[in-house]
Amino acid sequence: MENLKLEATERKIESKGNLKKLRLDGFLPGILYGDKETNLPLSVKKNSVKKLLESINFMSSVIEININGSKYKALPKDINFHPINNEPIHIDFQKIKPGTKVVVNIPVRFINNENCPGLKMGGVLNIVRRKIELKCPAENIPTEIIVDLTNKEMNESIHISSVKLPENVKPVISDRDFTIATIAAPTVVKEPEPATATTATDATTAGEATAEGSVDSTKATDPKTGAKPADSKAKSAEGGAKTSSPAADKKK
Amino acid sequence: MLQPARTKYRKAFKGKIHGIAHRGSTLNFGSFGLKAIEPNRVTSKEIEAARVALTRHMKRAGRVWLRIFPNIPVTKKPIEVRMGKGKGGLEYYVFRVKPGRIIFEIDGVEESVAKEAFELAKAKLSIKTQMVKRLGTL
């Protein structure tokens, strides 16, 4: 586990205007809490945080924060980004004390993709969980969870039980064997093919006619609700394409 | 094209788009996404055209998630009709997009393919958009 350092300065809780000025000056407001002590508002240089965000598993690394000479060991607990420009706007740190247990979201890394028969056959790695919530000792926080994809066939799922976790590290979800990823079968996008034989041409024109007919019928508005029935053409045209609604995925 | 199966009210007010998106502004499913950077009403036709452009460019690989759904009905009066005599008939459905909203997410393709696919898709939309990608492990 890497031990990173971050220089910070204490800040006063004043107005929103002060925070805005702080951000314009290139600093990131944050807070340090935990260990049953009073919360400590702080500010760090935004560029140093951005560098850490790009380079490492920032959210699962213990950071040594130096605030005006006093040092604290802390874990980045939360980071907020601006919705439009994706710049960090606030950061939370949680103090950690040796001997205690902490709940951390640890990122999952998939290895041996080239030795996976399912992916070689054209399957898609469908990641269900990019991070796993783990309960672990404060002095032994794993940086990442490695999942080996060797010998994983098509339509096979990788569950938490098949992953080797470090000692004294347990997943927070303990009542079920949850899925981390699946190797989903590929679906073919149907591109329109040029008709060669005359019979084939006839068949396709008939097909188009029926399709158009169905589209026309959908233009009628439902008198009760005002909503038009679902357009079947859109579904059939790109039927092979794997577009899915997030609601369906959340059920997993 | 996308439209609600049924609606509570047949016709809706035009409405205005205020502020920025605080919900639906982070990548939740895929590694790359297309983010709106200006507000507008995006029609179901535009969404469908962009989705088709994305899936065709990605061919067999990858996966697409659609993060918006057009649920606002828009009405229109017929041509050469005088003003008055009530609101026009139902024409199409839209989604009110606020700046910061993620419209599409994709995964399972290289960054270069994703970039090209989003370039094609963003040309189909009536708003300015930018591609975003997952930052490290966040």
Please explain how this structure is put together:
The complex is a heterodimer of chains A (252) and B (138). By secondary structure, chain A is α+β, with helices and mostly antiparallel strands. Among the domains of chain A are: 94 residues, Ribosomal Protein L25, Chain P (Beta Barrel), CATH 2.40.240; 82 residues, RNA Polymerase Alpha Subunit, Chain A, domain 2. Chain A is built from six helices and 14 strands. Chain A has a six-stranded mixed β-barrel. Chain A is elongated and about 55 Å long. Chains A and B meet through helix 2, strand 8 and strand 14 of A and helix 1 and strand 3 of B. Strand 14 of chain A pairs parallel with strand 3 of chain B, so a sheet runs across the interface.
Brief write-up:
The complex is a heterodimer of chains A (252) and B (138). Chain A is an alpha+beta fold and 252 residues long. Helix content of chain A is 22%, strand content 34%.
Coarse structural class of chain A: alpha+beta
* Quaternary organisation of the protein chains: heterodimer
Characterize the overall form of chain A: elongated
Radius of gyration of chain B: 17 Å
Give the tally of β-strands of chain A: 14
**Neighbour order of strands in the largest sheet of chain B:** 3-6-1-7
Largest interface summary: A-B, 47 and 46 residues
- What is the correct CATH architecture of the domain at 4-97 in chain A? Beta Barrel
Span from first to last CA of chain A?
31 Å
CATH topology of the domain at 4-97 in chain A: Ribosomal Protein L25, Chain P
Report how far the terminal alpha carbons of chain B are from each other. 33 Å
Number of strands of chain B: 7
Shape of chain B: elongated
Q: Total helix count of chain A?
A: 6
- What structural class should be given to the helix and strand makeup of chain B? alpha+beta
The percentage helix of chain A is 10-25%
Question: Low-confidence parts of chain A, pLDDT < 50 over ≥5 residues?
Answer: 197-242
Question: Over all CA atoms, what is the radius of gyration of chain A?
Answer: 27 Å
Strand adjacency order, main sheet of chain A:
1-3-2-6-5-4
Number of helices of chain B: 2
The chain-level mean pLDDT of chain B equals 93
